[in-house]
Amino acid sequence: AQSVTQPDIHITVSEGASLELRCNYSYGATPYLFWYVQSPGQGLQLLLKYFSGDTLVQGIKGFEAEFKRSQSSFNLRKPSVHWSDAAEYFCAVGALEGNKLTFGTGTQLKVEL
Amino acid sequence: DAGVIQSPRHEVTEMGQEVTLRCKPISGHDYLFWYRQTMMRGLELLIYFNNNVPIDDSGMPEDRFSAKMPNASFSTLKIQPSEPRDSAVYFCASSLSSGEDKAFFGQGTRLTVV
Fold first, then answer.
1. Distance between the two ends of chain B, CA-based, in angstroms?
2. Between A36, A46, A95, which is nearest B99 by CB?
3. What is the bridge-based pairing of β-strands B10-13 and B109-113?
4. What is the pLDDT of residue B88?
5. Count of H helices and E strands in chain B?
6. Tally of CB atoms within 10 A around A67
7. What 3-state class would DSSP assign to A61?
8. Does the pLDDT of residue A94 top 70, yes or no?
């Protein structure tokens, strides 16, 4: 069975500081990996995805993530955080069939001005 | 396309009442998913459909929950009778057949059962 672990429930960073959100997955085959962001009262917006190829994936809003098969990780990074990045971030692993997603429990990001 | 549309956005109901949540997927998408989000359990897949047919309902918590997809453009998630522990945000998502695509999410329905 596939599973996703996001070990950090809450993270607080200062505006302009770098950010790394951790994600570890368990999946029997080559995973399809995603990062979604959820702003308060909103649905889930896709930040980036990894299917194959280059293990460093660029996404929207200046985010990137690196797939490391040896560590079963897909950590999300941003070099300089903006106050508008405050939200909840979800890592997910998807099945080949139509993107049936298994989500991590999320990491709540707070940005201090 | 307006994206995945869910209604209502908010629902408050009394324990024991029937609740129906609605979803309109993106036109042309042949997969539809219902997820539930709670503080305790995070985002959980309840059920998903392919070409209007339920494929996996193993995530449906109990018999009080049922989902239908009468056609390609509409799905419902019904809870009867509702209980306070059903309070959560329910998301609908749709996607294309190919695994190499993303799932598009609606804005969710926040359900409160009092």
1. 35
2. A95
3. parallel
4. 96
5. 0, 11
6. 21
7. helix
8. yes
Mapped onto helix, strand or coil, the DSSP state of residue A83 is helix
- The model's pLDDT over B58-93, given as tens digits with 9 standing for 90+, comes to 999 889 999 999 999 999 999 999 999 999 999 999
d(CA B78, CA B82): 9
Per-residue confidence (pLDDT) for residue A39, from 0 to 100: 87
The chain A residues in contact with chain B (CB within 8 A) are: 32, 34, 36, 41-46, 49, 51, 90, 94-106
- Cα A64 to the center of its chain, rounded Å: 9
- Computed on alpha carbons and rounded to an integer, the radius of gyration of chain B in Å comes to 13
CA angle B41, A72, A14 (to 5 degrees): 70
Beta strand B5-7 with B19-24 is antiparallel
Smallest CA–CA distance, residue B100 to chain A, in Å, is 7
- Dihedral, CA of residue B6, residue B37, residue A77 and residue A26, to nearest 10: -120
